[in-house]
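Anyone up for a design puzzle?
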């Protein structure tokens, strides 16, 4: 869980603008928890005063109090769920936009290393996984913790020894949930990688469908798809097997606590140390508390399942743009004189050899120049260096004496018209 909390902590700056809403949502969650505790607390007067002492006044009062508690709980629960979910969705929308604009700022070499389908997978699928967990965690986690605290307070107030017996299994539940969560993280990390691989495969197959059909490669492409699809199926089934064991395991462990509490509580009632109302009020709180415990364990699983997706998003955000304006860079004045390449060399990132070596060239304003050569000779990178799609490895390029690396990219590209071979609308 330490890894998950470290990752999700990075979302806190995006939540800061919504702090008042989060505080209101937290307050409503406390109201929900308080009403849940009040319902369990009212079991004692309902039994002792109404059924044993036959108090007519309490017979009229207790049902009204229970109805009021349920009404307040329902209204507060709705308000808290909506407010927290709205914050979660807004945070995800902001993160999605931040990721998209960050990718746009990356150099062309970045897009050569990561397929466009893989990038789409991270923007759409990984961020959507984050949307699910953000709304779940914000809506459920705080409410569940508050309810556990409220109900545990009722249990301790009624009989602290019984409460100790009932919750002695909680550490074992925590160990089980942690172990399951780590396994879910590993499974979902591999799953998201395979989803990205599947997106790349589909993009290649659909964009090159004419070639696939022309060479009769439909069966080959289907086999490629089946290999990735089978692996995704295996991982999905493994994820379900691991996730679905959480609730049965939690219930079995909880049963030991309930059994011990019933045994000890029954002896206390028989001995006259507790009233039936005390015991059943405690039992009601005990029965109610295991619901939030189960839901909290599922929430922890959801966090672990989505941590891999969040990590993949931040992997992109943590990659700094290789080409950026230097601080205080001026705008490029209007072009009037000449474009010059001065001893320009260029090597693609990670390439062992230079693509361009010691290019020196002067092009005067109004002059028409054509670069002719075989495929791979370096025509495209030579042109790409002018608008700073890449930066030179050595030498410099100037417009009217201004080094293109010393001016803003926006002002540089505003003076360049690029017409590519591909049709793009």
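Challenge accepted. My sequence:
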């Amino acid at each position: 869980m330490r890894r998950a909390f470290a990752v999700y902590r990075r979302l806190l700056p995006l939540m800061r603008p919504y702090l008042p809403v989060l505080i209101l949502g937290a307050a409503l969650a406390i109201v929900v928890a308080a009403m849940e505790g009040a319902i369990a607390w009212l079991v004692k007067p309902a039994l002792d005063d109404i059924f044993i002492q036959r108090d007519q006044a309490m017979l009229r009062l207790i049902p009204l109090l229970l109805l009021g508690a349920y009404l307040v709980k329902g209204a507060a629960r709705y308000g808290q769920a909506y407010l927290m979910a709205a914050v979660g969705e807004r945070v995800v929308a902001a993160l999605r936009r931040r990721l998209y604009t960050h990718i746009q700022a990356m150099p062309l070499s970045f897009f050569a290393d990561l397929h466009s389908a893989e990038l789409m997978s991270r923007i759409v699928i990984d961020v959507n996984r984050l949307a699910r967990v953000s709304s779940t965690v914000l809506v459920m986690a705080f409410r569940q913790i508050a309810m556990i605290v409220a109900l545990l307070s009722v249990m301790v107030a009624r009989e602290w020894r019984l409460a100790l017996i009932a919750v002695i299994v909680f550490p074992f539940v925590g160990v089980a949930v942690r172990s399951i969560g780590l396994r879910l993280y590993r499974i979902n990390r591999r799953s998201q990688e395979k989803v990205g691989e599947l997106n790349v495969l589909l993009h290649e197959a659909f964009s090159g469908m004419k070639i696939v059909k022309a060479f009769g490669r439909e069966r080959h492409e289907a086999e490629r798809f089946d290999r990735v699809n089978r692996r995704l199926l295996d991982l999905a089934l493994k994820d379900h097997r691991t996730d679905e064991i959480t609730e049965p395991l939690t219930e079995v462990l909880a049963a030991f606590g309930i059994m011990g509490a019933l045994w000890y509580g029954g002896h206390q009632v028989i001995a006259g140390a507790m009233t039936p109302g005390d015991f059943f009020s405690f039992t009601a709180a005990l029965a109610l508390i295991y619901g939030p415990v189960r839901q909290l364990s599922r929430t922890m699983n959801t966090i672990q399942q989505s941590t891999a997706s969040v990590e993949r998003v931040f992997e992109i955000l943590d990659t700094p743009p290789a080409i950026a304006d230097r601080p205080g860079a001026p705008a490029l004045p209007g072009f009037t004189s000449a474009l010059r390449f001065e001893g320009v060399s260029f090597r693609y990132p990670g390439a062992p050899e230079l693509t361009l070596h010691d290019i020196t060239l002067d092009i005067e304003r109004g002059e028409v120049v054509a670069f002719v050569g075989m495929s791979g000779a370096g025509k495209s990178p030579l042109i790409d260096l002018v608008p700073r799609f890449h930066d030179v490895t050595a030498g410099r390029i100037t417009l009217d004496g201004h080094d293109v690396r010393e001016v803003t990219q926006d002002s540089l590209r505003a003076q360049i018209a690029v017409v590519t071979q591909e049709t793009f609308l």
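A detail worth pointing out: The beta strands are 338-346, 356-364, 394-399, 402-403.
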